[in-house]
Amino acid sequence: MRILSYKILFFVFFGFTELRSNEFALIHSKNFSNLLVKIAVDDNTKQKGLMNMKQLKTHNGMLFIYDTPQIVKFWMYNTYIPLDIIFIDDRNIISSIKKGVPMKKNLISSEIKISAVLEIPRGCAKKLKVKKGQIVSWIIKKTAEIKNIRYFHCLNLKEK
Predict the structure, then answer these.
(1) pTM
(2) Who has greater pLDDT, 110 or 5?
(3) C-alpha angle 61/135/68, rounded to 5°?
(4) Would you tell me which CATH number, out of the four given (3.40.50.1110, 3.40.50.2000, 2.60.120.1140, 3.40.190.10), belongs to the domain 2-143?
């Protein structure tokens, strides 16, 4: 009976986390709203990120959410899309914005402990006037809730 209880708890916890990683977030700041991104909350989705994607067709990037603030490291190996990597602290303040160069193996690290990282196509941060020190927020949405959202800021953004 005890083993069954643990299996049920394992399924409920990890099953719920897996479902959440298939959901979306609408990102907001003083300069923009409704920036649609996928979310990554479980380790598998965080490790994969935007790797192997050649373009974004249905969303503008990915929001990585961490349970506890921590120093995080990203790399662009097997990532084809040039990215703006935006580190967000536990007060939802942007602590830094770094550039991700496709296919590079060097680590891109947060300088302080952060609670979230937003990856969007390079140039999107400039287009949206995203800057260090700004506050950002997000609302988690299920796939069914985003069907009527058609405003994608950064799709088809050409780098200059």
Answers:
(1) 0.81
(2) 110
(3) 75
(4) 2.60.120.1140
